[in-house]
Design brief:
Keywords: Membrane, Transmembrane, Transmembrane helix. This protein has 334 residues and is mainly alpha-helical. Helices cover 54% and strands 0% of the residues. It is elongated and about 120 Å long.
Length: 334
C-alpha cells in the first residue's frame, strides 16, 4: 500500500468549493435573466400604453421611460460585477429591489395624472421609493450580521419577525408614494404604519442588546510587558534603555576599582579623568564610601638607632606601563 501524498489537496474541500461557486453563479445567472425579463416586460407595457393610452405629453413620458430603462440596465450590470463580493441572498435581494423600482417607475411614468402640476412630485416620490428599498437592504444585511453573532432560538424568532415587519413597513410606505394620487387611505392605514414601525424598531434593538449581554466576547490580545530591571549604580538614570533580556553594565571606576568615574553632562563616563586623575569641566563627581575594616592597633615601627642604618626606601611602582594607569576594561562581548 502506498502512503497518501501529504501535499495533495483534499478532494471533498475542492468539490464543496466548486459546488458553492456553481450555485452562486447559477443564482446570479437566474437573477440576470429575471432582470432581462423585467426590462422587456416594462418596455412592452410602456409600448402598449403609448399605443392605447392618451396622447397627453407622450414625448416627455417616452424620454423618461428611456432614461429609466437605461438606468436599470446600468444598475443591473453594476450588481452583476459586485455579486462575487456579496452574499448570494444579498445579490438576489438587490436585483429584486431594482426590479421593483423599475416596474413602479414605469407605472408612475405612464399612469394618468389626476392633477397636471404633480409631474415633478412623482419624480421625487420615485426617488423616495428607491431610497426606501435600499435602506431596507442595508438594514437586513447589518441586522443579519448582528444575529449571526449569537444564534439562539429566541434571537432567530426575533430576527424573522423583525425582517418581516421591516419589509411590511417598506411596502406600507411605498404604496402611498406610488399610488397615493388615486388612493384614498383611511386613518386606520396610517395607524397600522406607525404600529408596524414601532414593532420593527423594537425587534431591531433586541438582537444587539442580547448580543451585548450574552454573546461571547472576542478575546483581547494581552501585551506582555517586560519587568523593569533594577537601576544600576551610578549610571542607571543616564544609561540608554536596553532590552529586558540584556543586563546593564556596571559603572566604570578608577584604578582602585572603588571610586566611580565622573559622569559627563551627556550621561557618559568621563574617560579622560581615568587617565589624568582629574574630572573634566562640568562633569558630575560621585563619592564612594569604602568599608572601614576594624583592625587591631599595631605598634609603631621602632626608630632606627645610630648604630643601625636605615633601610633604603623602596621605589613605588604604579600599576601600568611606565607609571601610566592601565587602560579601562573592555565590555564583555556577546
Amino acid at each position: 500500500m502506498t502512503a497518501p501524498d501529504p501535499y495533495a489537496t483534499p478532494a471533498p474541500a475542492m468539490d464543496q468549493a466548486a459546488h458553492a461557486d456553481g450555485s452562486r453563479s447559477s443564482l446570479l445567472r437566474a437573477a440576470i435573466w429575471v432582470a432581462i425579463g423585467a426590462l422587456i416586460a416594462a418596455a412592452v407595457v410602456c409600448v402598449l400604453w403609448v399605443l392605447l393610452g392618451s396622447q397627453n405629453d407622450i414625448i416627455g413620458r417616452a424620454f423618461l421611460t428611456i432614461l429609466l430603462l437605461v438606468g436599470f440596465a446600468g444598475v443591473a450590470i453594476l450588481d452583476a460585477h459586485l455579486a462575487p463580493t456579496r452574499p448570494a441572498w444579498f445579490a438576489l435581494a438587490s436585483m429584486g429591489s431594482w426590479i421593483v423600482a423599475l416596474l413602479l417607475g414605469a407605472i408612475m411614468i405612464w399612469m394618468p395624472e389626476r392633477y397636471p402640476w404633480l409631474g415633478f412630485s412623482r419624480f421625487i416620490q420615485f426617488l423616495l421609493i428607491v431610497l426606501i428599498l435600499q435602506l431596507v437592504l442595508l438594514h437586513v444585511r447589518f441586522y443579519l450580521k448582528a444575529f449571526q453573532r449569537y444564534d439562539t432560538p429566541f434571537t432567530r424568532t426575533v430576527a424573522v419577525i423583525t425582517i418581516s415587519l421591516v419589509v411590511a413597513l417598506a411596502a406600507l410606505l411605498i404604496i402611498p408614494l406610488a399610488f397615493g394620487e388615486w388612493l384614498l387611505l383611511a386613518d386606520i392605514y396610517w395607524r397600522i404604519v406607525v404600529a408596524v414601525a414601532i414593532l420593527a424598531a423594537l425587534g431591531t434593538a433586541l438582537v444587539p442588546l442580547v448580543n451585548v449581554l450574552f454573546a461571547p466576547k472576542k478575546p483581547h490580545a494581552h501585551v506582555a510587558h517586560a519587568p523593569l530591571a533594577p537601576p544600576a549604580p551610578y549610571g542607571a538614570l543616564a544609561a540608554p534603555a536596553a532590552p529586558a533580556a540584556q543586563e546593564l553594565l556596571p559603572w566604570p571606576t578608577y584604578v582602585d576599582a572603588v571610586t566611580p568615574l565622573p559622569m559627563l553632562p551627556d550621561g557618559s563616563p568621563d574617560w579622560n579623568a581615568y587617565y589624568t586623575g582629574y574630572p573634566s569641566p562640568g562633569a558630575h563627581v560621585f563619592t564612594a564610601i569604602e568599608p572601614v575594616a576594624h583592625a587591631e592597633p599595631q605598634a609603631a615601627p621602632a626608630a632606627p638607632t645610630p648604630s643601625q642604618p636605615a633601610a633604603p626606601a623602596q621605589p613605588t611602582t604604579a600599576p601600568g606601563y611606565e607609571g601610566y594607569p592601565p587602560p579601562p576594561p573592555l565590555p564583555p562581548r556577546a
